[in-house]
Design brief:
3-stranded antiparallel beta sheet, 6 helices, 27% helix, 7-stranded mixed beta sheet, DNA-binding, alpha+beta, 10 strands, Arc Repressor Mutant, subunit A, Nucleoside Triphosphate Pyrophosphohydrolase, homodimer
DNA sequence: CAGCGTTAAAGTCATTTTGACATTAACTGC
DNA sequence: GCAGTTAATGTCAAAATGACTTTAACGCTG
């Protein structure tokens, strides 16, 4: 029996928790409509087509099931134990993707697709070994040396320092001192102040900053073609 | 045409450079005896058996070609572009392994297996996209948060602070101040002084230290079975 | 066996970075 | 115009870092 190829993708975006206020990492999940694990939430994914690359398959399957078009895609890990599937050998390549808040809005309206916190007590049970995949995605995110890159992919090209700090807090899972955070980032050369301010707020308008990229992450999937 | 599964492994160990003195990262390579890239050096690897896991396949193929039994194995990246092979689709899962100096000695005596520096001008050209795989292995090694773990896998369970510093220098590619290095490591709880000393040297005998593990790296392949 | 060369280990000190907190600035709503 | 809130800057002690010096413990040589 020849092996079958599939991809699964952890899609992460920031959302403000409607109950508790703080910004958190959320992910869209799809409800399984057949056995095994029927009715449980699972990561978006599907089989790899014969003429597409693994990264293309990840981008295509997540777009088909969720409607999303993430700005960042990175390969995570490959699962291929011989007994993962009772019939033939199933090799699954896991990816993880990052979304800006603007991109989050494009989620399809479908009762079988819903957003959930990526970790913590409100994060649901997942089908297969998908919880392990999500935890590994979070582990890699937290262990990245260049957080500026990550924050940029979650925020878009213009952002305030408060937004940037909330992303860091959501990823690291702990709160940071706003004043010290500001000082540290001003010392790095990874962000640059613009002459624009975020209007419409109720208080002093914060300045907008821009990310100065140092080239792509060596892990990023090239999807320019 | 169904996909074929294969593994390739970057095996890294420390060796003292016979010419220039310093400790460097070296890797064993195997010479290709058939087309394509016949005569060029390549990473050890081979097809995945029907009843073995991907990690088992990596451990088996590297042992068969090099005779080595590394103390550490970690999955790196999966390559699966549809046009990698002219005949059928070839999916290669790359691994990287770490060896202690004791384990390096067990290399098979075979003219088609030889050790080379893992990076720098004396590192040879490699077949296929294997240079990219090696560079990615080095990138991940350098971006690990827990260097103590890495050093432990390259040195064994007892080591002097000078040896530990040489490992850090070989991985990071720059020299470190011995006194400051000592101070930093004494503040972490990752190593512990033993009451033993390394005898036989020409100078003051250095104290031996032991690594205090914080559990395995989440990426490590479990090969206890 | 005293002195020298070499490496191990500990100590010194000025500079930089960090964490905790205070102060000033700029806006909205009443 | 004043209270309330967030943005942005400033202050300062503690901790960490980098460059360097000093002392200790060997083997080797004469």
């Amino acid at each position: 029996m020849p092996p079958a190829l599939a991809v699964s993708t952890v899609i992460l975006g920031i959302r403000t928790d409607p109950e508790h206020g703080g910004t958190r990492l959320w992910m869209p999940l799809v409800k399984r409509i057949r056995q095994p694990y029927r009715g449980q939430w699972a990561l978006p994914g599907g089989p790899v087509g014969a003429r597409e690359s693994l990264g293309e398959a990840a981008g295509r399957t997540l777009a088909e099931t969720t409607g999303l078009r993430p700005s960042y895609l990175e390969q995570l890990y490959t699962f291929g134990d011989p007994d993962r599937s009772p019939t033939q050998r199933l090799v699954t390549i896991a990816y993880f993707a990052l979304l800006t808040e603007a991109q989050v809005g494009a989620t399809v309206s479908d009762p079988n697709v819903a957003w959930y916190p990526a970790y913590g007590e409100h994060s649901p049970q997942l089908a297969f070994d998908h919880r392990k995949i999500v935890d590994y995605a979070l582990w890699r995110l937290r262990n990245k040396t260049e957080y500026g890159q990550v924050a940029h992919r979650l925020l878009g090209d213009r952002f305030t320092l408060a937004q940037l700090r909330e992303v860091y807090e959501a990823v690291l899972g702990r709160s940071l001192d706003p004043a010290n955070f500001r000082r540290q980032l001003k010392n790095t050369s990874s962000i640059e102040a613009t002459d624009e301010f975020l209007a419409g707020g109720k208080h002093r308008p914060p300045r907008l900053y821009r990310y100065i990229g140092h080239g792509p992450d060596p892990l990023e999937v090239d999807r320019t073609s």
